[in-house]
Amino acid sequence: MAAPSPRGSTVAQGSGKRFFPASDSTARRHPEPRHLPHLAKLAARHADLRIVIDHGGKPEIAGAQWQLWADDMERLATTTGVLCKLSGLLTEAGPNQGAHAVCRYGAHLLACFGAPRLVWGSDWPELELAANCRDWWTETATLLSGCSPAEYAAVIGGNAVRFYRL
Question: What is the pTM for the complete model shown?
Fold first, then answer.
């Protein structure tokens, strides 16, 4: 028997069935890199589920891990309609790394998802463990410097308004 969840989705109870999104449902995911292939499967099975990946898919920047994360994020961007939050990268880099430690990762997200599918986030207060908001804002401005004013506005706030229907 299925019961409605408080978020408008139907969850099967006692049947061993998995989550079935209702029309117009949203999901925020905080995946670790090992979860990204599973997220791609979820997005493929539930194309009407609007998904945003938090913290850029949480790349292991402090551990200098790149290729697996980069490949999985590119696959998600090209095979699904998910959006990606441009947030949490400095936190993943760790303290004393400097803002430019995340350039490669942010540039990859922008290249893969494009301005229409990136959603900026501050990651405050966790950001303060690694850097400060000024560093992240400066890094963001540098990353988006090649964008048009409309693309910049979309990443900084317009995409969030659209995704969350604010």
Answer: 0.81
